[in-house]
Design brief:
It is built from 5 helices and 7 strands. The chain is α/β, with parallel strands linked by helices. The chain has a 7-stranded mixed sheet with strand order 1-7-6-2-5-4-3, sandwiched between helices. The protein is globular and about 45 Å long.
Length: 196
């Protein structure tokens, strides 16, 4: 459609490596065009646990926070770790993939269209649709796993326990569930047991 993520883009300053930056640490998220976290996001970031459930209204910036968290230097893709972004539909994954490719372009060494981004830091970002119950994620290992708008995932608790939960085990990794409030279903159950 004419409103596809590629048709509507926000101009962001693009990181340009200088001759002095080659061989040094990767650029900051701000240099790559990630917006600064707002006070609410900083509060969530400071209070994170191994499994965090984030329930926020529309326009709070959940997806931006999720991407910031996945790419962060210490335990994210810029730090050389494998991470995964999951969303309920392929269309959501495609939009996020385009945004990440745009921002991380100077660091990308290899990409599989719509699915995987490999960075010069050694980090890997896999992107998955949960429309098939997440079965293609089986057997993967991640340091961080983020489920965006996961209240829309059918049978979320079963998918978490059966497919997603084993993926961060090897690295004693973290998981972040972010969604807009929705009564009933798996997201509410996760929020009541793990959320804030």
């Amino acid at each position: 459609s004419m409103w596809s993520p590629r048709a509507v883009r926000i101009a962001r300053p693009r990181y340009q490596p200088s001759s002095t930056s080659r061989g040094s640490s990767p650029p900051s998220l701000a240099e790559l065009g990630f917006p600064a976290l707002h006070p609410g996001q900083l509060h969530v970031d400071a209070g994170r646990r191994r499994f965090t459930v984030l329930c926020c209204g529309r326009r709070w910036g959940k997806t931006e926070y999720v991407l910031h968290w996945l790419c962060a230097h210490e335990d994210g893709a810029l730090g050389g770790w494998p991470v995964a972004y999951v969303a309920p539909t392929y269309d959501m994954v495609t939009e996020v993939y385009a945004s990440l490719v745009d921002r991380l372009a100077p660091l990308i060494t290899r990409q599989v269209e719509g699915h995987r981004i490999e960075l010069s830091t050694g980090g890997i970002i896999d992107l998955w649709s949960m429309s098939n119950g997440g079965d293609r994620m089986r057997g993967r290992r991640y340091r961080r796993l983020a489920a965006d708008e996961c209240a829309l995932v059918v049978d979320l608790v079963a998918v978490w326990e059966r497919v997603m939960r084993p993926t961060p085990v090897d690295y004693r990794g973290e998981a972040l569930f972010a969604s807009t409030p929705r009564r009933g279903g798996g997201f509410q159950r996760l929020y009541e047991t793990e959320g804030e």
